[in-house]
Design goal:
Methane Monooxygenase Hydroxylase, Chain G, domain 1, binds protoporphyrin IX containing FE, mainly alpha
């Protein structure tokens, strides 16, 4: 290995000089943008460090998501099939991205040590800036595959119009890239379900109808339910069968194949050859869950910190944050399909399990 010309030090390697000199905020009262000011309150340091560390973690999440997307989506590659050895790599990137989100979520207990009244001592200095303008957070959303139509309108302007112009280019680039969702759906759609199990969707739906019929019988005999409640439940069972049908027999070819693969992989997940695909699918759902938990936990912290005041960025505050936590989904269709899963023993074995070499030693 080539020896370095100079001996690295901890501080130099990590560029701590740059990082640790960035906790004095710019003085926005001064004409010179390089002028900084003293902290207004001791706890302003916590506020700054929390946000700066969030941005560093977002950088890590983006790197992991990007690698996962590239390995599984192979954008630009002629052959889109994913080498088997890449699946565990994708799985570990998604695992880390989810755990990093979880780590960020846990940090909210730390910012809650700040008193809401101490926050008010410096809050006005921030207006109208806000976490809403975190372009890395938006990049995570876009790269994950949050659709533009699903976004809640933010004060009459699309979210990217709130970004400082100099940071919008990176976001625009992301908006034209393949998303993680697209990559995962295309990968799922390539699972040869029909080869291993011709007519899988129809067989599954028949078995699901039998299952729902049994559930109906159980509830019909439930002495704790009034007739009206029973009728409501029965209507839900019927609607669930219709939902499952629409999910598995979706009109769009890619979506239909991906949805069938999701249910197929989940049903036969114990077969050796489906263990890695199942591990990956679980990570995808875990990532989604942690993303939502981050939003929900942030909203609870904000509620404690500013009550029902509008946000510094001008949104409705907690109401806006709660709306995003409850409605933003990336793999919502797959999560919903968990309601249709049934035990593999309710289905016949795949007629051609040799095709997937399920029992390869
Ligand atoms: C005193 C602490 C905090 C308060 C009162 C607060 C409040 C808010 C509010 C009200 C919004 C909505 C936009 C607006 O009108 O400003 C927002 C957005 C956001 N905040 Fe915070 N926040 C705090 C700390 C944090 C921290 C520590 C993080 C990261 C670890 C964070 C990350 C974000 C992100 C990513 C958004 C955009 C969310 C979205 O649009 O879906 N915030 N914050």
């Amino acid at each position: 290995m080539k020896r370095p010309q100079r001996t690295p030090s901890y501080h130099e390697y990590l560029q701590l000089g740059k990082i640790l000199s960035a906790q004095r905020p710019p003085d926005f009262h001064a004409a010179d943008p390089t002028t900084t000011r003293d902290l207004i309150h001791h706890e302003e340091l916590l506020f700054i460090v929390m946000h700066q560390s969030m941005e560093l973690w977002l950088k890590m999440i983006l790197a992991d998501m990007e690698l996962a997307r590239d390995l599984i989506g192979r954008p630009g590659a002629e052959d889109s099939s994913v080498p088997e050895e890449d699946i565990p790599k994708v799985e570990s990137c998604l695992e880390r991205a989810a755990l990093t989100l979880e780590h960020m979520t846990r940090q909210f207990t730390l910012i809650e040590t700040m008193s809401p009244l101490n926050f008010l001592t410096f809050r006005d200095e921030l207006i109208p800036s806000s976490g809403f303008q975190s372009w890395q957070f938006r990049e995570v959303e876009v790269l994950a595959g949050l659709s533009e139509e699903e976004r809640i309108d933010f004060e009459g302007k699309p979210y990217y119009a709130h970004m400082p112009a100099e940071w919008r280019a990176g976001l625009d680039r992301r908006r034209n890239e393949m998303t993680l969702r697209e990559a995962v759906i295309a990968w799922l759609a390539r699972t040869p379900v029909d080869e291993a199990f011709p007519g899988f969707a129809e067989t599954f739906l028949d078995a699901y109808a039998v299952y729902l019929g049994e559930q109906r019988d159980y509830q019909a005999a439930n002495p704790n339910l009034a007739e009206k409640q029973k009728e409501e439940l029965f209507a839900r069972f019927e609607a669930s069968l219709e939902d499952a049908r629409q999910f598995l027999l979706a009109e769009d070819d890619l979506t239909r194949r991906a949805h069938q693969a999701f249910v197929f992989i989940a049903t036969y997940r114990d077969e050796p050859l489906l263990r890695w695909p199942w591990a990956l699918v679980k990570r995808v759902l875990e990532f989604e869950e942690h993303f939502r938990l981050f939003r929900f936990r942030h909203a609870r912290m904000v509620e404690r910190m500013i009550g029902l005041r509008p946000g510094s960025g001008g949104s409705a505050g907690v109401a806006y944050l709660d709306a995003t936590a409850s409605s933003y989904r990336i793999f919502g269709d797959l999560l919903k399909a968990v309601s249709y899963l049934i035990d593999a023993r309710r289905l016949p074995s795949p007629p051609h399990d040799e095709i997937l070499k399920f029992r390869r030693q």
